[in-house]
Amino acid sequence: MTSDLPLQILGGISAREFLRDYWQKKPLLIRQAIPGYESPISPDELAGLSLEEEVESRLVIEHGERPWELRRGPFAEDTYQDLPEKEWTLLVQSVDQFVPEVAELLEHFRFLPSWRIDDIMVSFAAPGGGVGPHYDNYDVFLLQAHGQRRWKIGQMCDTDSPLLPHADLRILAEFHGTDEWVLEPGDMLYLPPRLAHFGIAEDDCMTYSVGFRAPSAAEVLTHFTDFLAQFIPDEERYNDADITPVSDPHQIQQDSLDRLKALLAEHMSDERLLLTWFGQFMTEPRYPELVAGTEVDEDEFVGALEDGAVLIRNPSARMAWSEMDIGLMLFASGQSRLLPSSLRELLKLVCASDALHIDNLGQWLADEDGRKLLWELIKQGSLEFADE
Ligand code: SIN
Ligand code: CO
C-alpha cells in the first residue's frame, strides 16, 4: 500500500509511521525533505504580494517603535526602504492561492485530508529576524526555502502559559529550549500544535509554513448548534408529558436533566446534519470574496469545453466530498450539495484534478446531472475557465 512506502518528504519514513509516531504528538526534523529546494518566489516578489489589497500580510519588527512592533498590510512600496537592516520579518498568508508554483507543494501532503490544510504562509526575514518565541494551536510543516534559519523548540504550552504583555502578538514570557537546528533550503521541521518554537534568520531567509486548520471544540459546539437550530421548529420544546407529582416544587431534579440530555442527544446525533455542517465549515474559503462566481449559460459552457476550453479549480476554493446512505455530498467553498451516487467518479475528479477538459470529462458532459453540477460550480465560483 502506498501509505507504507518510505517518503522523502518525511525523511524516509512512511506516511503511516509519521502519522502514528509524530503527527499531533512530537516534532520531526527532516533534512532535505525536498532536496535542493528553491523558492519559486523571490523575496522581492513576496514583498510585492504584501502591497496587494486582497493579500493578508504582517511585518514584525523586533526593535521598531516598540519592541516586537506589528504592522498589518497591505503595505506601501516605500515601506521596505525604511526598514532596518536586520531583525524584521515579513509574513504573507495563503501564498498558495496567489502563486500556483507554491500551491504545488501541497501535492507532497496528500497523505492527509486536504480539508485539514489551511494555507501556505511564506515569511521573509532579514538577518536576526524572527517573530519571537510562541506556540500555535495547529500543526505546521516549516520548509526552509531560502537562506538559513535556526529553529529552537521548547516546552508544550497552553492558555495558562505566561505571555509578554503585547496587544497583538502572543510572545511567550518563558522559553525552555530543548533542541535547536539550523535549517538549509530543502530541510523541513514538523511541529505539533502547542509546542513552543522560535525561528531566527541566520541570513536573508525564507520559510514556507504549511499550516493546518482544526476547529476548536468551542467552535464546533457553537457553530454546529447554530446550524442545527435553523432546522428545529420553535414549537419543539422541553417536554415533560411524563412528569409525576414533585416532592419539592423548587427543586430541579435528575429527571429534568435526563429529559434535556435526551433532547440534546436526539439532535446532536443527526449524522446527516453533522456531516452537512462539517463539510460546509471545513470548506469555507479564507477569502470568500475571491470565490465570486460568474453568470454563464449552460450551452455556452458546454460549448466552450467542447471547443477545448479548460476549467480549473479557483485557487481560493475549497472542496471535499463524502458519501452517506442518502447519497453523495459535495462540499464546495462552504456550500453543500446532495448528489446521486452515479456522480461518484465525477466528484472525485472535480476534487482531485487541477484541470478539467474534454479529455478527462469525456462522458460527463453528456450526463445531465454531471453537466448541471459543473455548471453550478462555475456559477458559484469554485471552478473557472483557465483563460479568465
Ligand atoms: C516564520 O516563518 O517566521 C514564523 C513561522 C512560525 O513560527 O509559525
Ligand atoms: Co509558529
UniProtKB/TrEMBL annotation:
<dbReference type="InterPro" id="IPR003347">
    <property type="entry name" value="JmjC_dom"/>
</dbReference>
<keyword id="KW-0223">Dioxygenase</keyword>
<dbReference type="InterPro" id="IPR039994">
    <property type="entry name" value="NO66-like"/>
</dbReference>
<protein>
    <submittedName>
        <fullName>Cupin</fullName>
    </submittedName>
</protein>
<dbReference type="InterPro" id="IPR046799">
    <property type="entry name" value="ROXA-like_wH"/>
</dbReference>
<keyword id="KW-0479">Metal-binding</keyword>
<feature type="domain" description="JmjC">
    <location>
        <begin position="101"/>
        <end position="229"/>
    </location>
</feature>
<dbReference type="Pfam" id="PF08007">
    <property type="entry name" value="JmjC_2"/>
</dbReference>
<dbReference type="Pfam" id="PF20514">
    <property type="entry name" value="WHD_ROXA"/>
</dbReference>
<keyword id="KW-0408">Iron</keyword>
<keyword id="KW-0560">Oxidoreductase</keyword>
